[in-house]
Specification:
This protein has 162 residues and is α+β, with helices and mostly antiparallel strands. The protein has two helices and ten strands. The strands form three sheets. It has a five-stranded antiparallel sheet, with helices on one face. Strands 6-5-8 form a three-stranded antiparallel sheet, covered by helices on one side. Strands 3-10 form a two-stranded antiparallel ribbon. Strand 5 and strand 6 form a beta hairpin. The longest helix is centred in the first third of the chain and has 13 residues.
């Protein structure tokens, strides 16, 4: 029986993901190290300033831990925590070079991310398997991606970290 290949996160791979994020209309790009059905989701997410991450939370079945772990490898992001009404409760600056490098959110915490530096690279970990229909529970009172309202909202959120 052949062993699975060793997977590496190299500078060349990061450069490829960064370039894709720059060309993406969403201003971000994922690279999965996991297969969608695997028990542990592990992926690199590259965010560019201006990307809109619609506020959401993760809820999992009782036998799955709904945590989400972010480790910033390059750049800097703002993490905004909210209540169910979308009111901001807390802001965290997470950076490859700052005081906080990583943060873990427990299940059910409403959050969004703001890229504070170009080419921000983070490693995300959460329990799977991934299900596109149930992975995120979005707050209805926030705009859809790609709308003028979402663009203005990102500018407002970025200003909180100036």
């Amino acid at each position: 029986m052949q062993s699975p290949p060793i997977k590496r996160l190299t500078q060349n791979l990061i450069a490829e993901i960064v370039e894709k994020s720059r060309r993406s209309a969403r201003r971000r790009q994922n690279y999965n190290f996991h297969e969608l059905g695997e028990k542990v989701q592990r992926f690199v997410n590259v965010l560019q300033p201006g990307t809109y991450v619609r506020p959401h939370r993760h809820r999992r079945p009782p036998d799955i831990n709904g945590f989400e772990f972010f480790l910033v490898l390059q750049g800097e992001l703002g993490l905004i925590l909210m209540n169910e009404l979308g009111e901001i409760l807390q802001q965290e600056r997470v950076s490859a070079t700052g005081e906080i490098h990583a943060i873990e959110l427990p299940e059910g915490v409403v959050h969004t991310l703001v890229a504070l530096a170009p080419d921000t690279v983070m490693l995300e970990l959460k329990e799977g398997p991934y299900n596109v229909n149930t992975d995120k529970e979005f707050l209805d009172n926030f705009p859809q991606e790609g709308t003028p309202e979402s663009i203005e909202l990102v500018k407002t959120w970025q200003s909180y970290f100036d």
